[in-house]
Write a structure and sequence with these properties.
Helix content: 25-40%
Strand order of the largest sheet: 1-7-6-2-5-3-4
Distance between the termini: 49 Å
Length: 205
């Protein structure tokens, strides 16, 4: 018997527990106004540190699949669990057509996706250059993007740090960005709009 959202709820509970375990105060802004329960989205967030994964799983409150680096497949238990539950692993040699085919299948099934647009964690907590993958998927599937600004997570678990530190975090869910047509111009528009609203929230315009 397959339980609806059966692969999502254990992860949601675990990530909520991790936030409580480290006494991380999380302020959520804009989610109730901008994320509808009856729609699927592509959630695009900045990537300050490893704790971002716990934050998004714990507070998006929708079943979604990740697009993640292939190196995470080697993480004990986590890698196997993500592979078995249908998340997308990518590396530099993965054919783009395979990535986008899997992403389209996820969106068409009624699920959302979550993607870190920078592709890797920030070296200094500042917003980096956005890659086009998330926006190509949005363009192909004509799915709205919800930009999420993560502020404060860099101080919890920055890159190359193996011990979590206490820091308050704010997650800001912005108004969905709709596709403006289809094609390369739409991809560029989605990327620029998404990065602009996240940068503004972080004070990095």
């Amino acid at each position: 018997l397959k339980i609806k959202n059966g692969d999502f709820y254990p992860a949601w509970v675990w990530c909520r527990f991790m936030c409580l375990l480290f006494f991380i105060p999380v302020k959520v802004v804009g989610r109730e106004e901008n994320v509808r329960k009856d729609k699927n989205y592509i959630f695009v967030a900045n990537h300050q540190g490893m704790f971002d994964i716990f934050l998004l799983y714990a507070f998006i409150n929708k079943n979604f699949k990740w697009m993640m680096k292939d190196s995470l497949r080697k993480v004990p238990l986590v890698g196997v669990a993500c592979y078995k539950t249908g998340h997308i692993f990518v590396n530099r040699t993965t054919p783009q057509k395979d990535i986008f085919r899997k992403a389209q299948k996820i969106i068409k099934s009624g699920l959302s996706m979550s993607i870190f647009a920078e592709g890797t964690r920030s070296d200094n907590g500042k917003l980096g250059r956005f890659k086009k993958g998330a926006f190509v998927v949005a363009n192909l599937t004509q799915t709205e993007i919800v930009p999420i600004a993560i502020d404060g997570a860099y101080d919890i678990l920055p890159k190359n740090c193996f011990f979590a530190h206490w820091s308050p975090v704010t997650l800001t869910f912005h108004k969905p960005i709709e596709c403006q047509g289809r094609g390369s111009e739409n991809v560029d528009y989605l990327l620029e709009e998404t990065r602009s609203v996240i940068a503004k929230t972080l004070g990095e315009e």
